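Name: SAM-dependent methyltransferase
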Amino acid sequence: MHEQLRPDEKGATTSTEVYHDRLLDLQTIWWKRLLPVQAPFRFDLRRLKLGRTLDIGCGLGRLLTALPDDSVGVDHNPEFVRHARGVGCIAYTSDEFLQSKDATPDRFDALLLAHVAEHVDADTIDTILQTYLPFLRAGGAVHMVTPQEWGYRSDPTHLNFMDFQALSDIARRNSLAVERSYSFPFPRWCGRVFKYNEFHLHARKGAG
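Structure predicted for SAM-dependent methyltransferase:
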């Protein structure tokens, strides 16, 4: 394992150039360039009709490109932010976002946290949510996505396995009402044999 690719309670290893390069290599491998592998995940995101979304931990922008044009990405890795901007997305580093015009209360219809929670400890994911929840309107959605077994094992920076119960616990601690949990793109048992199967949890912020 590369020294910079290891679990860290605060997710610091995912902010490095090494992690950016690894993810870029994985997402641009030849067979992923030939096959529309992201199409089912983008379709699933679009059908949720999230509205203007703040994509927290936007990475390379692969899901951000499927969201409405006025959606915004934020990531603590500046290399990811540069890449997301390069493909036409609105994206900020964490510090840049908090000083931007988009850091306005109630500005977004939804928060998306895709492949974030498994990288950090409980205190850190709660801090992340509490930082960005003020920018979500009352009644807005919070959608969380985490990998199932094989996907979890595939990344050396993963810290905690986050299943439906763990995601529900995050929602409960942060006063979010869980509306739905589901396995995607295949049934739950496929997560042991299919690397890209995911846990999804859809929750909602109270009306205040």
